[in-house]
């Protein structure tokens, strides 16, 4: 694969107050955190402005990545119409629509080959547009990077230990991301995730230079979301918020302070800047996720709130990181055999023909979450760092409990007991998640996806390479033994004793 480097252009109801203890910078070696994010444009009909952006950029060579399912829907028509009306005279639009739902190394390579060949034959693109969910946006990020700076080996940019994790050498072609699901937050992050077929695991590429130049967040684009897509993309937002807020503090990150700020990892650990965005997303999700699942087309307020929550969660976890829920999800999604969710078209995935199913990303994440938070939240409270993490689990559980009582109508019989939550923070958060999963009719336990005790060892081994996220767990170590225990518990995840309610 060859190319020329010069081608690149560049309302929460507070029932009880939870006291959160401050952590000290003496707990770790990096006293500095930073925020990196894309420019965001938010609002109904904002997609129609994309042609003006191209005019401002004088972008004549345009490449549009689009989910093939969207090619016959209004968001695609809006983008193409805006380009035709406002892009510079003489512009040329190419379209790539071979997007794989939950992309893998082969689908990334297909998109890269298309982009490289078009660039070799017709010259560099001035701008790339990605219209779709996280799968589309991540595919565009990868194709953009590998066209601008072709590596010797595909895995050179891939996160260790599967790849070398080489940094992006320089600026890449401007990318405009237009999400059509309320989920991954990929419009704000420098991360591109894919299934690695040879190792039966999920990994990705992460660097700040992969961030879109502009993210256009338009609630109108979510009108056509099927209910199951709204459910699993939305629950991913919730988990982004929970994991980034409960991640190890940036001051205690194992890697410590880097020699240069350019080497500071994108996933820094929970920090005061990310906390703002993560808590906003958590409160919005806990209130509006059930509503958008019930009526994604007509509940205008829920759509508006959830699509913005996806972006704010992206700003949170894109700088703080996620931990074990996502780390375990990658093995669950990549090793599944036959499971499939209605409303996810099989025609978009060739794997259905060779016996590989599809677990939506959000489902693969949340189905492990109760097991994870029981592990990360039930800690040694004599340790200041672990007490800090426990307090955060309690705060998250209270937010979910408050929202649950609002939805069901508070009767006085289900008042959350802060004292009991503080005694068993992990159980408190796990139980609130299970309550929400039951309400949304989300499968409980990975056995429901077709897994059994015989699969646990491979699932645990498939999670071990996810060092970038597992090291952010507030409870360490996370080795093969702990992962095996977590997956065994996740097989049949039930609700523990109903300790959080006052009789």
Q: Can you summarize this structure?
A:
With 503 residues, the chain is α/β, with parallel strands linked by helices. It has 16 helices and eight strands.
Spans of at least 5 consecutive residues whose pLDDT stays below 50 are: 1-7, 9-28, 495-503
Mean pLDDT: 89
Strand content of the residues, in percent? Answer: 5-15%
Strand order of the largest sheet: 1-8-5-4-2-3
For the record, give the distance between the C-alpha atoms at the N and C termini, rounded to a whole number: 67 Å
H/E series: EHEHEHEHEEEEHHHHHHHHHHHH
Biggest sheet overview: 6 strands, parallel
Work out the radius of gyration.
Answer: 22 Å
Structural class: alpha/beta
Helix content: 40-55%
Number of helices: 16
* Principal-axis shape: globular
| Total beta strands | 8
How would you describe this structure in keywords?
globular, 16 helices, about 45% helix, about 500 residues, disordered N terminus
Provide an overview of this structure:
By secondary structure, the chain is an alpha/beta fold. Helices cover 43% and strands 8% of the residues. It is built from 16 helices and eight strands. The strands form two sheets. A six-stranded parallel sheet has the order 1-8-5-4-2-3, with helices on both faces. Strands 6-7 form a two-stranded antiparallel ribbon. Helix 1 packs parallel to helix 2, helix 10 (369-377) runs antiparallel to helix 13 and helix 11 runs parallel beside helix 13. It is globular.
